[in-house]
Structures are given as structure tokens and as C-alpha cells.
Specification:
The chain has 127 residues and is α+β, with helices and mostly antiparallel strands. It has a single domain, classed as Alpha-Beta Plaits (2-Layer Sandwich), CATH 3.30.70.1350. The chain is 26% helix and 43% strand. The protein contains two helices and nine strands. The strands form three sheets. Strands 3, 6, 7, 8 and 9 form a five-stranded mixed beta sheet that branches. Strands 1-2 form a two-stranded antiparallel ribbon. The longest helix is centred in the last third of the chain and has 20 residues. 29% of the residues are buried. Belongs to the asp23 family. InterPro entries: Asp23. Pfam families: Asp23. This is Cell envelope-related Asp23 family protein.
Length: 127
């Protein structure tokens, strides 16, 4: 799906600016990763899986409706960062910066913290 953001009004040049939902999704995931202590929750199969990966972008689902983005992000938060404060920072960064970078207004951001990971002696473990 692509979103028509703007139709150019120059009389000799026609066309428009189109942004795909995938571009919005990837941009949002990168923005979320810019928040300190936020990363990918890791993968899990039948209860067994990897711990969080702070070198990867969080998982994101994007739904575009009426030219507005509805986002759901699955992420990990590094312990001892406050979970609620960190999740709100993710929501704020996505709401403020995504529209600025893509031109697509953000209608809603749901942040789901799937893992909390602590640093113990330089290693990470799931709390």
C-alpha cells in the first residue's frame, strides 16, 4: 500500500509524492531503536528463544487508514530503565518524528514491552 501525500501544483509538472507503508514501518522501527534501552525482543519458538537484541530494530506492525499510520511495536527494554517511562518515550518519538520524516500523520502508537533484560556482570539475562 502506498500513500499519496501531496499532488504537485506546478502547472508544467504533474505527479505526486507516494510513501509506502513499508517505508513508514521501517522508519518507525529505526526511530524506536534510537530510544536508549530499547531493542528487539528476540525470537521465541514453543517457549524457547533468544534474549533481547539491542543491535536490532524492534518489531513493528503498521496499518494505514485514511492516510494516517496506526502502529504497534513489540520491543525489549533494558533493566533497570523504568518500563512505563521508556514506552512513553518510544510513543513520543514515533509520534513526533515519524510525521516529520515521512509526511504521514501518526494516529496511534501501541507499545508492547515483550522482554525486560538486565545487565549482570556485562552479560544480559531475561528478568
Amino acid at each position: 500500500m502506498t500513500i499519496l501525500l501531496q499532488t504537485l501544483s506546478h502547472p508544467k509538472v504533474g505527479g505526486g509524492i507516494h510513501v509506502s507503508a513499508r517505508v513508514v514501518e521501517r522508519t518507525a522501527a529505526q526511530l524506536a531503536m534510537s530510544v536508549p534501552g530499547v531493542g528487539a525482543p528476540g525470537t521465541q519458538v514453543m517457549g524457547v528463544g533468544r534474549e533481547a537484541d539491542f543491535d536490532k530494530r524492534p518489531r513493528l506492525q503498521t496499518h494505514i487508514d485514511g492516510g494516517r499510520a496506526f502502529l504497534t511495536i513489540d520491543c525489549a527494554v533494558e533493566y533497570p530503565r523504568p518500563i512505563g517511562v521508556t514506552a512513553e518515550k518510544v510513543r513520543q518519538v514515533l509520534t513526533d518524528r515519524l510525521t516529520e520524516l515521512t509526511g504521514v500523520p501518526v494516529a496511534r502508537v501501541d507499545v508492547r514491552v515483550r522482554r525486560v533484560v538486565a545487565h549482570l556482570d556485562g552479560t544480559r539475562s531475561v528478568v
